[in-house]
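so my prof wants the structure for this chain in the tokens format not the other one, which i didnt know existed until like an hour ago. anyway here's the sequence
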Amino acid sequence: MVRVTTTDRRAVLRAGAGIAASGVLTTGCATGTAPGGAAAHPADPSSRAPASRTPAPAPELLLRHPAQIPHGPRDRPMVALTFHGDGDPATANALLSAAEKHGSRVTVFAVGTWLDAHPGLARRILDGGHELGNHTLRHLDINAMPEADADAEIRGCAERLKALTGSIGTWFRPSRAARASPLVERLARRAGYPHVLSYDVDSLDFTSPGGPAVVRNVMADLRAGSIVSLHFGYADTVAALPGLLHELDRRGLRAVTTTELLT
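here's what i got, hopefully its the right format
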């Protein structure tokens, strides 16, 4: 069974799980500030902009894939773990380090305001061999926005990625939705993203169900070629990742970047 959730389902799940939320925290994904609204401490390396380096990879048109991509080929033993990039940089670093220790690579969809608060994380992600994509500027309900506002959300994050890495990011994923509306798909293409990346497995880690439950949620629906939705900023995701990677090994699957999965 494929579980690609909608914004309404996420809101219900959060309420059912008793997770406190306020402001724009009404769906599974976190907002652009660290938990509690704390800004990065000046001593935090993630708060420093990286030195200029070779530009990161740019988006590519993949002729064998549709405009909106929910999963990769089913005939190769690979999956893509994709993370909403927001929240406490310590949690982000813990997840990246755990993936690297295992020899796995992930794709991170960064929120623009998160990059503003922690600019060093953009290069940290790339230096670890991972991929970096656009998850809008402020992580609002982009499908519900007027055209000008939605365009500003996409381009605002793209500009930050470009300034930090030399590229607008390899992929675009809409905020607060599994799939982009026709308008948002068109705006993303106009901003330089030939594809919108969706997913076919939702970990539901944003409901904080506990690490073992996150692993079960993923493995229940996972197949070769799956694209999995996960989040930075949640302790349960950190707790789940070692077990999740172990289960991938047991099934003979490798966690790779989305580009490697699709090309």
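also thought this was worth mentioning. The first strand starts at residue 68 and ends at 69.
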